[in-house]
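Please fill in the sequence for the structure shown.

STRUCTURE ENCODING:
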């Protein structure tokens, strides 16, 4: 009686185990049912019982394997589903963020020439999202003709140096309108150092540029209005200081000197702001003419020599007699050099300071170097050093009266003339600024730059 009843139960469990893959809960119920049955059967030593035990053991093993497979599959599916949901959420959030900021992303596979654009980048270029694939040649063709060469040069430089890039350029939309974009990106290399792809972002900054232009127009107007009364204050201060309006007692002289000194600093600040607004509003044309750079640089060095002697700094220029005539706008080149040299002298060591200037021909163009052995620029400050009003913390300790506009102006002038500027620095050992120009010399970035 016991044997036949047990065998019947054993066969029913085996049959259920074959269908257990559809219900993990039923598997656990079978486990619970098998436990007392196995305990009962092991007490009986008959052949039939042993056979039944073997069947039940096989069924149990099958059930265990089935449950393990089901659990693993359930976890895999759950993980895949969660991953797909997260990716969908992230993708949707990214698309919404790009649409809000008018910023699109792109990736260029250099080997195949294929360029992948985000939906928002298609919209920025006046196209329907993913309406067609964009090749590198078509991308260049969409750029304004006057900006195309600059974009090509920046991309080529990134290939060669590996430096991330940032630039602005105009594009011609299908309707014929112009749009101004700010591009940022970098080149990715393989294990052998060969460029394999480039990726980055492009943002529509047309409205921001229009607002900036309105702001620059206002600043320019205000600065012009400020300069005249400030000049009058300085002139009358000099008259009083020189005693031309009558004798002054020592206290009056001190007040007049303070007033005159403050007016001079304000005039210098206003002049810097006017320079910035002229460049920002494209009111400067590059008037390059064949020039002997050695003569021009030596003139600037001679002008800075009194400041260098006062600071106990050795100021030298290593002239290259074989460099010949170079197309240079002497006014702009002079502004660039004077700013860099005065900065170098100002931030050299308190004693035994050294500033060296070089202008030489490199394989890619002409290179101006201004090198000092001064305080150096901390690594955290280097990416901001060319920004408006920015000053490194250690620079404010040496000179608390700087405006933070000098290097910003140098960068604007350099880029307006088709050049590039960068630096190398070690804190406590010094800084070297590099300004490069192509072999055809200084030239306007845009053909439509207006005359001031």
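FILLED IN BY: designer on duty
SEQUENCE:
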């Amino acid at each position: 009686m016991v044997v036949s009843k047990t065998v019947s139960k054993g066969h029913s469990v085996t049959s259920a185990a074959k269908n257990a893959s559809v219900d993990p809960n039923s598997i656990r119920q079978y486990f619970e049912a098998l436990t007392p049955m196995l305990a009962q059967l092991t007490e009986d030593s008959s052949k039939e019982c042993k056979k039944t035990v073997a069947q039940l053991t096989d069924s149990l093993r099958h059930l265990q394997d089935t449950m393990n497979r089901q659990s693993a599959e359930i976890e895999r599916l759950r993980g895949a589903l969660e991953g797909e949901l997260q990716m969908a959420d992230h993708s949707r959030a990214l698309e919404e963020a790009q649409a809000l900021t008018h910023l699109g992303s792109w990736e260029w596979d250099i080997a195949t020439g294929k360029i992948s654009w985000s939906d928002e980048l298609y919209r920025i270029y006046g196209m329907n999202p993913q309406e067609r694939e964009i090749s590198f040649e078509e991308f260049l063709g969409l750029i304004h003709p006057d900006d195309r060469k600059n974009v090509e040069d920046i991309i080529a430089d990134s290939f060669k140096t590996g430096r991330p890039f940032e630039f602005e350029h105009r594009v011609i939309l299908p309707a014929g309108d112009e749009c101004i974009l700010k591009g940022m990106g970098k080149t990715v290399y393989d294990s052998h150092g060969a460029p394999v792809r480039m990726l980055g972002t492009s943002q529509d900054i047309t409205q921001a540029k229009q607002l900036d232009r309105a702001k620059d127009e206002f600043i320019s107007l205000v600065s012009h209005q400020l300069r005249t009364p400030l000049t009058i204050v300085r002139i009358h201060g000099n008259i009083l200081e020189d005693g031309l309006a009558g004798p002054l007692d020592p206290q009056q002289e001190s007040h007049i000197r303070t007033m005159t000194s403050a007016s001079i600093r304000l005039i210098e600040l206003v002049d810097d702001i006017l320079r910035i607004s002229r460049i920002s509003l494209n009111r400067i044309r590059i008037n390059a003419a064949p020039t002997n750079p050695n003569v021009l640089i030596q003139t600037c060095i001679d002008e800075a020599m009194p400041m260098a002697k006062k600071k106990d700094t050795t100021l030298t220029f290593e002239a290259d007699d074989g460099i010949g005539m170079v197309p240079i706008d002497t006014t702009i080149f002079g502004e660039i050099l004077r700013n860099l040299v005065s900065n170098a002298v100002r931030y050299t060591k308190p004693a035994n300071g050294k500033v060296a200037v070089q202008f030489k021909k490199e394989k890619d163009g002409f290179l101006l170097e201004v090198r000092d052995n001064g305080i150096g620029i901390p690594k955290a400050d280097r990416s901001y050093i060319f920004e408006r009003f920015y000053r490194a913390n250690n620079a404010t300790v040496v000179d608390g009266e700087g405006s933070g506009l000098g290097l910003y102006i140098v960068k604007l002038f350099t880029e307006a003339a088709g050049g590039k500027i960068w630096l190398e620095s070690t804190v406590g050992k010094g800084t070297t600024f590099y300004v490069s120009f192509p072999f055809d010399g200084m030239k306007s970035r845009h053909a439509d730059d207006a005359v001031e």
